[in-house]
């Protein structure tokens, strides 16, 4: 049974989403991290490397080295930096190096829909730092 204070990574709670699939190793780009497109066409976690492509949905049911990224959507889960508690309605800030949400970083066109939730990875293991849901107009 789902719990309202928990989020399962790798999925959005809303059916409204626009997703692109990129050549990015899902072991690096786990669900809930923000990815950026480098000039050579590869994907990076560092915001200095290029423009934001979206929030990772992590690995799919296949074993490919491709990762889906949500570029627009509602109720999109994002991983939080250790100790950070987001404020509902506040603009989302992304770490310039880790791709996680932080209190001060690179601002993106997204707003927190929830504060900290218990987060479970794709294998059902609790993620220590938690996650939040964001509305992400793109």
As a percent range, the share of strand residues is 35-45%
Spell the H/E element sequence: EEEEEEEEEEE
How far apart the termini lie comes to 31 Å
The SS-based structural class is: mainly beta
Rounded mean pLDDT score? 90
Q: Main beta sheet, described? A: 11 strands, mixed
Quantity of strands, as a count: 11
Output the number of helix runs.
0
Which stretches of 5+ consecutive residues score pLDDT under 50?
Answer: none
Secondary structure layout plus pairing:
Blueprint: E1 6-8, E2 17-22, E3 34-37, E4 43-44, E5 51-56, E6 67-79, E7 91-94, E8 101-102, E9 106-112, E10 117-120, E11 126-136
Parallel strand pairs: 1-10
Antiparallel strand pairs: 2-6, 3-4, 3-5, 5-6, 6-11, 7-8, 7-9, 9-11, 10-11
